Amino acid sequence: MHQFRLTNDCLFQDGSPYRNRAEGQCLRDFLMALLQEFYTGESYRFKVVDDLGLACLATTAVCVYHEKRWHSTVLEKRALVFATHHGSIVTDQEYQNCLDLNRRTSPRVFVQTLPNMAAGQVAACFGIRGEYYVLVQTSPDNATLENTAALTLAYGGADLCLTGWMEYTIEQELTVKMTIRYAHEKDQFVGSLASASIARS
Question: What is the residue range of the signal peptide feature (predicted)?
Fold first, then answer.
């Protein structure tokens, strides 16, 4: 079981540098390069995806590329549980300001629309046809995310569940954290397989 951590400058595998962002390479090109290397699904128009969606896709691509059990699991047995921070007028306004400054276009309402789109893009690209949830909660440490994943595995008929935390903070930082959990009890504590903390420049 490998662990991955994706920052704005480097992809780490088990704590060691695995892929570095080239000098002068913009963040979006770095994420696109990771997708081109690790994404093995059908063709998808990544260039029209917003930054958070691209971060989720890149992190998931690296995560599942190294997980053989993912590829041997039928699509209907794959589940997805994503969560995002609770609604914040300040957060929404900061995000809207970024759009007004002609940055990458994204849906106008971050809290409800963007996380659902990012999760939907992941589900479409990585063949997740089982249970599907996008939660709104107060923090990434909230037990609701893990409890929902555990219940999905126990009662939803899924063999594995991709869980993810997505947040756009008032400090203008995108954060994505991913974990893959399995239905068998012995696999429940595999820990975080991949995470991404991406700061806008």
Answer: none
Task: Outline where the chain has alpha helix (H).
Answer: 27-38, 51-65, 68-71, 89-100, 113-125, 143-155
DSSP secondary structure of 174-196 = EEEEEEEEESSGGGTT----EEE
First-to-final CA distance of the chain: 33
CA distance 85 to 146: 15
Measured CA to CA in angstroms, residue 85 lies from 80, 98, 137, 157 at distances of 17, 18, 5, 27
Q: For residue 44, give both structure tokens.
A: 């998808």
Give the rounded distance of the alpha carbon of 16 from its chain centre.
21
pTM, 2 dp: 0.77
pLDDT of 150-192, one tens digit each? 999 998 889 999 988 887 654 456 677 778 888 875 444 443 3
> In angstroms, rounded to a whole number, what is the distance separating the alpha carbons of residues 124 and 50?
15
State the CB neighbour count (10 A cutoff) for residue 159. Answer: 19
